[in-house]
Amino acid sequence: MLQQQDSNDDIEDVSLFDAEEETTSRPKKSKIRHPVASFFHLFFRVSAIIVYLLCELFSSSFIACMVTIILLLSCDFWAVKNVTGRLMVGLRWWNHIDEDGKSHWVFESRKASPQDSKTVSEAESRIFWLGLIACPVLWVIFAFSALFSFRVKWLAVVIMGVVLQGANLYGYIRCKVGSRKDLTSMATSYLGKQFLRQTTGDDQTS
Prior knowledge:
Keywords: Membrane, Transmembrane, Transmembrane helix. This is Golgi apparatus membrane protein TVP23 homolog. With 206 residues, the protein is α+β, with helices and mostly antiparallel strands. It has one domain. Helix content is 64%, strand content 11%. The protein has helices at residues 35-58, 62-89, 122-148, 152-177, 180-205, and strands at 2-5, 11-14, 91-97, 103-110. Strand 1 and strand 2 (11-14) form a beta hairpin. Helix 1 (35-58) runs antiparallel to helix 2 and helix 2 (62-89) packs parallel to helix 4 (152-177).
């Protein structure tokens, strides 16, 4: 079962796919249970970065390099959004239009329970979140590098990488953490704890 949350913070229990129900009886293992999904979770995004870094060494055609990178980024966006998140960590986000033409963003996560907690591989979870976080950070670095080195023609490609991979990162954080209210409350709580800790430390030193 999954916990579904739309843009209006309405929550209901839904099944991700019927096939997912079969996984609830499988024991939790540290090994990789979905090797193909894990491979493609990293393949497209890492390949896009490698092509960006090395394409000028092997090809003088900017158009060919740009098209290759955009295709890899698009494949990565689709694979991570629709396949690897569901299989590797039990998360999914998507958009639908209701009868009134209003757009709704839905963020789903597998509902926590003793049975469902056994369906996620720890190794796959680490691979998923490492790839999901590290690659957008690299694209942000590339964006600043392209901007300050006046590589204007590459700036659009880099921004595409930031947007596509950043969208997946934001979507899955929303799935994992919850609504914007939850994100705000977590940030406020963290800052409050840091302030209290600093205040306590100052009082002890004085």
